[in-house]
Amino acid sequence: MANQDPLEKLNSMERPHKDFINIMPLQTGSVLTGAARRALIEFGDGYSVCDFCTGRLTDIANPPVNVFVRDILPPFLGCDVATLTYGARDGIFMVFHSVTKPGDVVVVDKNRHYSTAVAAERAGLTLVEVPNSGHPEYKIDAEGYKAAIEEHHPVMALVTYPDGKFGNLLDAARVGEIATEAGIPLLVNGAYSVGRMPVKMREMNASFIVGSGHKSMASAGPSGVLGMSAGWAEKVLRVSQINKKKEVECLGCTLRGVPLVTLMASFPEVESRVKQWESQVAKAQRFSEAMQRLGFEQLGEKPHRHDLMSFTSDIFYEMSKTVRERGYFLYKELKERGIWGIQPGQTRTLKISTYAATDAQLDYVVDSLADIIRKYS
Fold first, then answer.
1. 3-state secondary structure 272-315
2. Residue 9 falls within a domain, yes or no?
């Protein structure tokens, strides 16, 4: 209501699409498990996770944060040492800030997330991008890192695995070999892989890996994880000279409350589901084929190897020019059919994740898109 009291709006917040089929890449990997929802209520009061803290977040034994960080996360990530962050971008900045110095060069892929560039800017770094192959696959050739390293003499390399634009999975292990030969560390941005698919830092010859709890680990956000090899832990996790129990890069503590306990509570199911990754890939490929039969062009590598994918949708874009709602007509039509995830106003390119949907639900999505095409043709 237009005249509704502002405070009343705060008391009546709800998600109108909470029971919809969800195909939004930002959300499909973060749907909370039943255990996480119970933990959310139990530890929802402010700093309740810190009831038994003796000064260091990762030493808390009740809830078992210490066990999670020291015994569970490292083997899952394939690293020696792990810690908690507010998200993948925070982990990236922690590494940049502690390992480099202003003016240094870091080689990254062209498909890198914007937050990588922001983290580099904040740390005073220069990014050199390895180009992609352009339309329609936008693939990154791992050998491009070798040329960029030889020319620009960086102090680090970063790969986005997969990228959040097209869902491409470059040959990270080969990049790791190239970085090792050059004597520089590799950082893997696994925001859309850690928690969705099997991924091990060591197998990619990397020194660091970051993950996103609120994108791919069935956690409330913001939440994330950072793994590293033992040789870097002393530098990245160095403690304050003022307070010996607080880490400098973490500003003392990072993840507390609901984001942390939901990350922990969901973990057993997350660890189990990554073993079913091949079925997720098969599901995504079937969906892509169905979309292409409707006339949509799938961008990114083919056959696709990730649930996140992007499609050009010229047919909806042309329709948006003639209808009263303009670009919002597609969002409206899908909402009426119980489908959530296409950004309001977006018609030219559709970014979709198949991760949380069943085959039957995805068939319904395809049938709904076909019905909308018929309706407006």
1. HHHHHHHHHHHHHHHHHHHHHHCCCEEECCCCCCCCEEEEECHH
2. no
- Same domain? For 206 and 303 the reply is no
Cis-peptide into 16, omega within 30 deg: no
Among residues 221, 248, 273, the one where a domain terminates is 273
Say which residues have a Cβ less than 8 Å from residue 29's Cβ, sequence separation at least 6.
192, 195, 196, 215, 216, 217, 218, 353, 355, 356
SS3 at position 68? helix
pLDDT in tens, 50-98: 888 888 888 889 999 999 999 999 999 999 999 999 999 999 999 999 9
**Same domain (yes/no): 25, 41:** no
Alpha-carbon gap, residue 279 to 264, rounded angstroms: 25
111 token code pair: 């498909």
Structure tokens at 238: 């160095």
**DSSP one-letter code for 210:** E
Let me know if residue 295 belongs to a domain.
yes
Q: What angle do CA 326, 329, 330 make, to 5 degrees?
A: 125
Q: Into how many domains does the chain fold?
A: 2
Strand order from edge to edge, sheet including 224-228 = 81-85, 224-228, 208-212, 186-189, 156-160, 105-109, 126-130
* Model confidence pLDDT, tens digit, residues 115-145: 999 999 999 999 999 999 999 999 999 999 9
Q: Which among 237, 214, 193 has a CA at the least distance from the CA of 82?
A: 237
Tell me, yes or no, whether 40 lies in a domain: yes
Identify the pLDDT of residue 7: 75
- pTM (two decimals): 0.94
Which of 230, 170, 243, 231 shows the shortest CA–CA distance to 204? 170
In a 13 Å sphere around the CA of 128, the CA atoms on its Cβ side amount to: 19
pLDDT in tens, 270-326: 999 999 999 999 999 999 999 999 999 999 999 999 999 999 999 999 999 998 888
CATH number at residue 324: 3.90.1150.10
CA geometry: angle at 278 spanning 367 and 179, to 5°? Answer: 120
Amino acid symbol at 205:
N
Give the list of residues 6+ apart from residue 167 with CB closer than 8 angstroms, or none.
192, 300, 304, 305, 306, 307, 308, 309, 310
In this structure, the answer to whether residues 212 and 349 fall within a common structural domain is no
Domain that holds residue 123: 34-273
